[in-house]
Recover the amino acids of this structure.
């Protein structure tokens, strides 16, 4: 098994530009997507692999937002600091660029990693579930060379992302198959065990 | 390998709540799209939506309630009331659902302004699934797929494979979503994705029509009971799920890959998974969002899947009637597939009044098309470039 686990402190710059073939894509990224793109690049760059390999991603519950929510809210308040429907439409929705919508969609880390590495195979995006991610991988149509990844953004803006190439036998007896937590915990455990890319 | 059957349904949709009301609306070609009333859309530049209905009326919900959670709860109640799911012990029940992005009470967040964190105004879809699993005694495992417009069909693909590997299990699968709220709705508007139809709301979503002009957001929930041939009572079988495939375009997050080759590859994978060839497919249930590019990509995909008969194979799409249910869309549209297999006829796709010559598919229009239907291919594609395909087989009594 090969794994990459990256962690970034709150406010720490994620060096995504250095890992992108098309650097213009970075404008679509929230912190989770940026961290995921970097971690996937560290795992996959230089490897020769079938672009149709299965790829499953788990996105952790987002506890931090970099969508400009406060900008929209401030622009949507009336003079009494209440919500104004008209100001929401006239000012609020224009307070952030339309591309911000991409930062709110949960399948974007998977989509951008797929674009960056030309991955065109079987896929899924699971929400906040270690067991769900492993269950999905166990149902893959192949037994080896399955790509899994996850990302987690914490309330303070710290972020972790993990990617691994696994075989089904790596996970068939995993205690995380019955674990109620998020998938980043799997990667921490594997990383602590020394399974590194 | 076990065969997998759909043996029960619970549904909340723009055509109605409960399978009977849904079917009545479907057969009548009723339009579930109208001007939005479930939340305040005053000053909105457009306000078309496929709102969930019960007994003909839009389902009301208190402000700040996550409507999609309510819908799935209602759908599960119907499923438990009308299917054999209650016959399985809790340890042999699983719940794998597709869901949209989390509900966010934006007006509430703006009004509060007292330092309450934004997360207090958000309701997590994964928590909804966890809560439903507890309430409906599902102890065999659960998951929420959030792959946008293919979330619910990916969840059904997972359910299919789970039962093939563990035929003693009963899996509840489907999807639930509502993006009829301030931020979600206007987010799609800002991307230029929503229909700008100038006519009556019922005509706003026009899949494959020459004047198609964008999608209309819908809402609802559908839950299916999936059982294996080892455990299902044959008299309960609605249809068989015979194959599944998924792919990614790896192209752009905004547009479908124009050649349709990866969507076609998903379909071909599902057809192979079903042990069939494309010649065995009698009809196709299309994604049919009502956008210009979607129709072109689906036509190219059908050309690749069915090289000699892509213009002739009868195809249909439901979004003209119900809108685009995003995280629940594919699973909800499977109800149209089940209806076709059971009734041996295809219902017309509404609002495709003037077929686009650039999309020379055989979209069923005007009148139902009676025909022998054994296998239906269902395809869906997501904002972000993910594709799914499912193959359904008529259950032979």
């Amino acid at each position: 098994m090969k794994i990459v686990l990256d962690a970034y402190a709150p406010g720490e710059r994620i060096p995504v530009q250095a890992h992108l073939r098309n650097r213009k894509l970075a404008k679509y990224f929230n912190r989770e997507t940026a961290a995921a793109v970097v971690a996937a690049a560290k795992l996959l760059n230089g490897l020769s692999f079938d672009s149709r390999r299965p790829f499953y991603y788990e996105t952790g519950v987002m506890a931090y937002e970099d969508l400009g929510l406060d900008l929209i809210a401030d622009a949507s308040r009336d003079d009494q600091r209440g919500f104004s429907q008209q100001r929401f439409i006239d000012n609020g929705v224009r307070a952030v660029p339309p591309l911000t919508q991409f930062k709110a969609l949960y399948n974007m880390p998977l989509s951008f990693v797929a674009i960056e590495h030309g991955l065109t195979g079987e896929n899924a995006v699971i929400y906040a579930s270690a067991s769900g991610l492993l269950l999905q991988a166990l149902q893959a149509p192949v037994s080896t060379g399955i790509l899994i990844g996850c990302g987690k953004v914490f309330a303070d803006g710290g972020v972790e992302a993990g990617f691994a190439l696994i075989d089904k036998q790596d996970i068939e007896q995993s205690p995380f198959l019955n674990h109620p937590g998020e998938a980043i915990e799997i990667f921490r455990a594997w990383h602590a065990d020394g399974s590194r890319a | 390998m076990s065969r997998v059957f759909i043996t029960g349904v619970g549904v909340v949709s723009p055509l109605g709540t409960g399978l009977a009301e849904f079917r009545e609306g479907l057969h009548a070609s009723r339009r579930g799209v109208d001007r939005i009333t479930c939340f305040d859309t005053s000053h909105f530049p457009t306000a078309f939506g496929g709102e969930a209905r019960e007994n003909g009326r839009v389902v009301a919900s208190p402000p700040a309630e996550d409507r999609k959670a309510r819908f799935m709860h209602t759908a599960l109640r119907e499923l438990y009331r009308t299917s054999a799911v209650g016959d399985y012990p809790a340890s042999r029940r699983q719940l794998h659902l597709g869901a949209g992005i989390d509900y966010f009470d934006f007006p509430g967040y703006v009004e509060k302004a007292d330092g309450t964190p934004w997360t207090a105004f958000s309701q997590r879809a994964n928590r909804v699934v966890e809560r439903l699993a507890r309430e409906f005694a599902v102890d065999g495992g659960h998951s929420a797929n959030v792959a946008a417009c293919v979330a619910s069909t990916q969840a059904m693909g997972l359910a299919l494979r789970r039962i093939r590997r563990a035929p003693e299990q009963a899996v509840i699968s489907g999807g639930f979503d509502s993006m009829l709220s301030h931020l979600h709705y206007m987010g799609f508007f800002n991307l230029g994705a929503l229909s700008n139809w100038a006519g009556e709301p019922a005509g706003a979503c026009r899949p494959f029509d020459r004047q198609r002009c964008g999608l209309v957001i819908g809402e609802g929930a559908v839950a299916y009971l999936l059982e294996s041939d080892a455990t299902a009572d044959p008299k309960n079988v609605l249809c068989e799920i015979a194959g599944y495939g998924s792919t990614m375009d790896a192209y752009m997050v905004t547009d479908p890959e124009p050649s349709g080759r990866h969507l076609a590859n998903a379909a071909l994978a599902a057809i192979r998974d079903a042990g069939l060839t494309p010649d065995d497919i009698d009809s196709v249930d299309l994604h049919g969002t009502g956008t210009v590019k979607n129709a072109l990509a689906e036509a190219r995909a059908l050309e690749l899947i069915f090289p000699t008969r892509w213009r002739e194979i009868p195809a249909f799409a439901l979004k003209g009637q119900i809108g685009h249910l995003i995280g629940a869309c594919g699973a909800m549209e499977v109800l149209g597939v089940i209806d076709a297999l059971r009734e041996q006829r295809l219902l017309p796709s509404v609002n495709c009044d003037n077929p686009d010559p650039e999309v020379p598919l055989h979209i069923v229009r005007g009148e139902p098309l009676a025909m022998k239907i054994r296998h239906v291919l269902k395809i869906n594609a997501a904002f972000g470039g993910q594709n799914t395909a499912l193959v359904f087989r008529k259950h032979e009594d």
About this structure: Chain A has one domain: 2-65+100-192.
